[in-house]
Amino acid sequence: MTKPTAVLFLAISLVLSACNNQENTQSSQPEPAVPTGEVQQLEPEPAAIIEENKEPSTEVEVPEVSEVSDSEADPETEEAELEVPIKYHMNSNYDIVPNDESSPKKVVLLTFDDGPKEEAMINQLIDTLDKHSAKAIFFVNGYRVKEHPELLKLIHDRKQIIGNHSWDHIELNKESETTVKKQIEDVQKIVKDTIGETPVFFRPPHGSGGDVGKKVAKENGLLYMTWSNGSLDWEMKSKDKNKTEKIIANVMDQLHSGSNILMHELPWTVETLDTLLTKLEAKGYSFVDPRSIELSMR
What we know:
Blueprint: H1 3-28, H2 36-42, H3 46-53, H4 58-61, H5 75-81, E1 88-90, E2 96-98, E3 107-115, H6 119-131, E4 136-140, H7 142-147, H8 149-157, E5 161-164, H9 177-195, E6 201-202, H10 210-219, E7 223-224, E8 229-230, H11 243-254, E9 259-264, H12 267-282, E10 286-287, E11 293-297
Parallel strand pairs: 1-11, 3-4, 3-9, 3-10, 4-5, 6-7, 8-9
Antiparallel strand pairs: 1-2
Helix pairs in contact: 6-12, 9-10, 11-12
């Protein structure tokens, strides 16, 4: 090999060697890393896609109207809203008479005068009334309501009916019209102020209201009444014996369809009431709801 040829060969070898080294160097370098943030944007989780694209739920934004089931309904509210149909009227004898043949004739009206007196007696009377699904009129005196307004509220809250029995329990037929008016209207006011309702029934003390009492009662939208069946419980004393038997005998001896039974808030009447109502039911009588009576006499 000549000298020039050897030099040329060496040069070519060096060039080829350099190219091979550069290729090997490039293939051994790591690939550049892709930024982490870009990876997260490119591949969102399926749940994230659903959450991002779904429309707002109407169930969340629009409150549902709550419905009260029968078991959750307030029985006191239901009864307050219940309208009692008018089925009876009162005649000149103060008896309760059905308006037509569709209503039972054998009914009695239960009434209690001269209260409210004592919480225990009131609760016991109403417990017995509730036991027999009965409503009664509690005729109250104004001075007693003033002394114990909470007792009037008790009668009202237990869904019994409040009646007007004058303020002082005096004989109104012996008084002036001015006095009678005050005796009746002051009770109307205090009852209204205490329970939010005005009485619609009036009974004069001693059954003696006179024409003036009837006039003032009518002017105040009150149905005037005395009674047609007296228990005579007011004539009895604590020391008397057999008071229960006497009360029952008095009522049963006078019993007739539509009897308007007069009783009082008295201990012996409380003791007698359950037996009396049981005997009345056994005779086929039911207890008229005072709210079903017309407020005008026929």
